[in-house]
Amino acid sequence: MPEVSDIEHRIAKRLRVDPSYVFRVGYGERNSEKVVQALEIEMKRLDRLKPQKNSSGSDLVFPCLEQIRAGSGLC
Prior knowledge:
This protein has helices at 6-15, 19-26, 33-49, 57-61, 65-69.
């Protein structure tokens, strides 16, 4: 498993869960509506702080997030 980022650590601390759980939800290995919502909020916050050339930060950091949101499961 790749190293957990600062994003996962911030969300994990806020939700009082393990950072690896946040990572696994972000990549579609686990399901948690709370974590998905927190990831979306964090990605929007990052987009506002530093606009990116691609469509959204979530596509770059968690490529499966939109598929998870749509209910299609693992990517």
